[in-house]
Structure formats: C-alpha cells, structure tokens
Amino acid sequence: MLPPYPPGIADPKNDDAGPLVVVVSQCIEGHTLVDAHSHGRGQLLGVWRGLITLGTTAGKWLVPNVHAVWIPPGQLHWANTHGQVDGWSVYVRASACEGLPQQPATLRLSALLRETLRRLESLHEAPADPMRGLLEQVVVQEVRSLPAQALNLPMPTSTSLVKIAQGLLKEPALEHSLEDWAALANVSPRTLSRRFPVETGYSLGAWRQRARLLRSLELLAEGHSVTATALELGYSSISAFIALFKRSFGVTPTQYLRGDSASA
Length: 264
Description:
Blueprint: E1 21-28, E2 32-37, E3 42-56, E4 59-63, E5 67-71, E6 77-92, E7 105-108, H1 111-122, H2 131-145, E8 148-149, E9 152-154, H3 159-170, H4 178-185, H5 189-200, H6 204-221, H7 226-232, H8 238-249, H9 253-258
Helix pairs in contact: 1-2, 4-5
C-alpha cells in the first residue's frame, strides 16, 4: 500500500469526516482472498494491472484493467486477486454517495478518471494543495457519469437454484443435462427453465456460458494459456472459445493478454 494517507485520516475506508475522496493503492502477488467485510465509505475498486473478482451474496463482479466496480457504503463484499495485481481504491465520503449506484456495479473507466486518480495519489504529501478539492469533485462527478458494463454474474435467490449455480462455479466444464440439474435442485425441468431466468435474468444455458467466460478472464490473468483455459472450461473447440470470447469482450484472448482490451 502506498503511504501515507492524507494527514488526519486514521481509517480511509470509514472516516467520513475526512476528505471527500481518499485514493489508496496496493500491489498484491499471487492469488489472495480478502474475507467478507464492509466500509463506511463508498468504494470504487479498480486495477492498473491484473484482475480482481468481487463477490456479494447477490453475485460476482470482475474487475479487469479498463473497468472498476462501485461498492456502496455498508455493502458486505469479499474479493479474490488473480496473478500479480496493482490495484487501487477510491473511498468516497458516505454523505457524498447520493446519486451513485445503490448496488454494486461494473463501470467502464474514462481517461479523465484515470488521470485524476493518479494526480490525487501524488498529492498525499500535500493535503492542502488547492487542486485537491477540485480533483475530488471531478472524481465523484465522473463516477456518476460512467456507463455500467455487464461484467457481473447474478446469483439465483432460492436455495435450490443456488445449488446449481454453486456447482457450475466450482466446475464450469460440467455438461449435465437440464434433467440432471433439475434433479439436483429437486424441481422439475419445466420449473427450472422458468425460474432460473426469473431469478438471474439469464437462462441456465446462458448463465453457464457467462460463468465460463468470466472464469476464463480469471484463468488468463493467472497465466494460463488460451488453449489450457479453453480445455479447462470444457470447450471442445479452441477456435469456438476464441470466437465466443471476442464476441463477448471485443478482443481475442491473446489480445486481452497483451492488454489490448483497453482499446476495446
């Protein structure tokens, strides 16, 4: 973590009496699990390099380097890092979070926000700099204007369907039939087909495909090859995996590994 915090800020995650915005950076090596916790301030979580997975009881969000996840004040969440991660967080005073998303959301970063964050980081040693207040206002207004991106995986709400989702998250390559999954959830195939979209917004097949694609980002960030990633996730055709990845993320897996996703 990059010290120091602005003078007078004992806890940048919860101190609502301090500056409007506090920027904190951290470098993490290897796979790390951050246990469930919450903050008194709102948090915008992003990475300069690497990948973070954020989880709540409602679902899972991915944070590649062209996006960030907004976490409202008081939201219980946990996180996993994949590979080497140079991460950053912006903690926004709770009283300034009106108009910001009330649920976690993946936001696509703007060049303006990136450069504003870097400038604010450089002012840790100069808390009285007259530019600070202006930059803090830019951060809050820019977060309000950022477009949301669909890099989340909503979880079902009923206990029976959660069993299916957890099974697919644990083993994305599973090829069970609709009847097999229905038996696991102790419901009829017709009920499963009807309830899964109601609870998640996706059919079971589309949810499974989405789970595999999001997992592919994690595996690639951890250093797995494109071929190894496709095979681990159960794709019989490497080219089919590459084509689906490009349709979903705008770049091929190889381009993503090179960091070309920033221009997608």
